[in-house]
Amino acid sequence: MLIEPGLVLGILGRLQPLLNRVIDAVEITLKYDKSCFTAPWSRYRAASEINKLTESVEEHLKQADLVTVDLALSISAKVENATEDTKHALQSVENQLSIVTRQLPNVRRQLTDVTRQCLKPSTGKSWNIEEATFAIITAFQNLNASDDHDNAMEALPLTLATIDPQQPSPKLDVPQFVFGLDDSIGRLQQLLLSRHSDADPHSIGVWGKGGVGKTLLARKVHNSMEVRQHFGNANIIWLTVGKDPDIRSLYRTLSEKLCPNLVQLNTFSQTDYKDILYQELSSRRVLFIVDDVWEESVIEWLEVAKGPGSVTLWTSRKERVLLRAGVTETTKLHMDKLSEEDSWRLFCVHAFGQYNIPPGVEGLAHLVVEECQGLPLALKVIGGVMVGKKWPGEWERELKKLEESRMKHQDVEKHLFDCLKTSYDDLENADHPNAKECFLYFAVFREDELLEQDKLFQYWVAEGLVPGEVGDDPERETYHVLGLLIGRSLIELESDIENKLCCKIHRVLRDLAFHIIQSHDPDEKKQLALYRPGRHLQEFALEWRTNAKESLAVRRLSLNNNNLKTLPTKISTPNMQTLLLSHNEELEDFPNGFLKGIGQNLKVLDLSFNNDLKHLIYLHLGNCQGLKQLPKSIGELKNLENLHLGFGSFTKLPGSLGGLKMLVVLDLRNCANLQHLPRSIAKLRMLVTLNLFQCSALNNLPEEFRSLKLLESLNLLGCGRFNYLTISISAPNMQTLLLSHNELEDLPNGFLKGIGQNLKVLDLSFNKSLKALPRGFNNLKHLIYLHLGNCQGLKELPKSIGELKNLENLHLGFGSFTKLPESLGGLRMLVVLDLGNCANLHCLPKSIGKLKMLVTLNLFQCSALNNLPGEFSSLKQLESLNLLGCGRFDQVTQIYILVGLVSLRNLKIDAHNILPTGLFLPLRSLVIHKSSDSTLNQLQSLEGLEDLTLHTGEIKDFDSHMKSSFHTPFLNLKTLRLSLLPNLQNLELNACPNLVSLTLNDCPNLEGVALTNCPNLICLPALDSLPRLGSLVLRLSIKELPQSFTHRGAFPALNLFDLGQSKIVEFPEVEEGAMPKLQWLDFDDCIFLHTLPASFSLLTSIQKIILGSKNEKLMTSCKTNFRNSTVRKTFMVDGKPLIPEEEVFESVVPMQEDTTTVRGSDKRPFQKVDGDNEERLLKRGGSKLGSDFFVPSSPVSFVYLGSSSVAETTKSEKEHDLCEAL
Question: Whole-model pTM above 0.70?
Answer without folding.
Answer: no
